[in-house]
Amino acid sequence: MPASAHLLSRIGVHPDVWQADALAGSPGRVLATGDAVLDAQLPGGGWPLGALSEILQPPGVYSEWRLLLPALARCGTGAVVLVGAPQIPFGPALGAQGLLPQRLLWVAGQAGAQRLWATEQALRCADVDAVLAWLVQVRPEQLRRLQMAAAEYDKLFFVLRPEQAQNESSPAVLRLWVAPTADQSDALEVRALKRRGPPLTQALRLAARPARLAQLLVASQMDVAPTLVATRTALPPEGAHFTLGRPGGEISPTLVAARTALPPGETGSGDALDRTAACA
Amino acid sequence: MHWIALQPAPDTALAGAQGEASLADAATAWAWWALQFTPLVARMEAALVMEVSGSERLFGGRAALLDQILKPNWPLVPVECAQGATSLIAFGRLQCAGRQARGDADAMPADALPLHTLVAARAHLPTLARLGLRTWGQLCALPRGGLVRRFGAGLVDALDCAYGQRAEVYPWVILPEVFDAPLELSASVETASALLFGARRLLAQLQVWLRARQRGVLALELLWELDARRSNALHVDAHHSGAGQGRLVLRTAQATQDMQHLARLLGEQLAQVTLPAPVLYLRLRSLQTQPLAGESVSLLPDDVRQGDSLHQLLERLSARLGAEQVRCATLHADHRPERMQRWSVAVNAAQAGSAKGLGFAIKSGAACAHSTGAGGQNDSKNIQESALYPTWLLATPLRLTVHQGNPQYQGPLTLLAGPQRLESGWLEGDAALRDYYVARSATAGLVWVYRERLGAKGAGVGIQAQACWYLHGLFA
Asked: Which of B335, B415, B453 is the closest to A240 by Cβ?
């Protein structure tokens, strides 16, 4: 294979042509996804800039922020436009993961045509760095139009669609199916439905949680004896009370609190969530 | 004194066919444009006369000034031009210029100018011709007293003006303080979106005015008058009660001379208007303008990103979708998740120009991030806490069914971490007493649920089994 690749490069074929068993070499500019496992499987090593990437999800399951936040946090300082977001984006949580809430622009178009129009307008704006569009009913030619706009204005552009759309044709250069894994590990399962390269036979497993939350989850997995119910009580901040342990004992008895395995430097402050954990 | 007379070449339509948008009143717009060269501009029939001796030095001499005037920066070129010591000589030479080469006309002595080029003499042309008078010089040679008795004082006064023996006073063209231009539509317009064609012409006129004033428009108003005769009885009543006019106010966040953006906004807004009766008259008025600062251009061409600016995007989205549909977030110090952020209307935030507005955040994202965290360590601690919050928040918490003491959301939930106790809002009479938990759903991944603490709504202690569980966030 290396010999043939060498041959190809010597012949001087167009960079958009790649061998079927290798990833496309230079698909334009890319932005690292923040996850080495995913980067290794994407052509160029990241999300393509100026191209449409499609994320498919099962209905009622949301994993988009886990997947996209690292890239969105690093894509610049311009606006991030959310067209037709299914829920309210929670600014404090996004801000903690690097995406400043001031950058968010939430466009709540109801009709499909409105969303398409708003998406295209956002792509044409110079001050916008990334566009996320939740499109349910969309035809390939409409996506094609968005793809052209993204390419012309060089934007990070994701379209989020339900998984039923995976059998429809799409002009997207990258199509991923994303869902949480079925087991208890809270990993993210990613399948590449379409990429510039060979088909991906195995689903990828990404951790994709902010470190703080991951620590909390790890701690919650640890089986700790109920006698270790936390003894320390934090001074509650004004206006809110945080308590440790079981509040009143009326919750199911399987819920116990325990100290987490946080590094010593981080245990000094914080609230109950990061020092207590429960296992089912 | 040195005068320049200008008029459009006969084969040029004054409507400015070359320009992308035709003007509502091209002659007035042209006079406004001429005001950039000298404050003394007057209209004489179809021509403009301007006195330039005061501004020649500013433009680097007479030749340079003429080059400036004749530079093709106006859709009205080609233009015919003539010069002279007085406005009437310049105008007279301009009238002859059609038949002779330009240099010849400028060199033509005043005495040799034909009489038909003197406006005041036109009424008496047949009589003068029968007297054998053809040129200004011949008329000037006649005794004054006889001329006044025969033709009236007007002709003699005009001759005095033409030869510079009398000051020339005109109703000078002045640039109005406020732009207010009417337009009579060539045909009555039935639908509001069709008004855009007329409005575009008014906008083009506005652009000329803005350029002359070196200002940008912030707010403008489009008025239209309904044709009362053709409306039905109901609307006639409305007309008599003073509602025979329609009105649309357009605002933009940044002062602009870009009429394309305004026309698009106007189109979006007009699409939502229904006209009760046909419209015959349009009127455009500027409500608020401000001096336009020069635009700094990057030294490196690559720095400039193509596309519209953010405020244009906001205004266009808001115009079509409704202002409520386009929002930006501001954070608030509160313990209740639903009050930690406020999604306010983005256009208002941008127009208010507040430091927390979106535009500011974009321009100096890093600086803003720095400044919001005034209390250094405190801020980093907040961020660490915020990392445990979910990324999607439900607009209204979803009441969960409880099965055998376990909350259910797409199957039973497994509580992973918590409780995080929240007790806030009692001062506002809307007390939130909640215990938040991170829970796992077998299908939906991690969710954020809370249990309404007992006693929150004055509930008794005895109904603990019926504690209410709510879904409030999703760890997407």
From this structure: B335
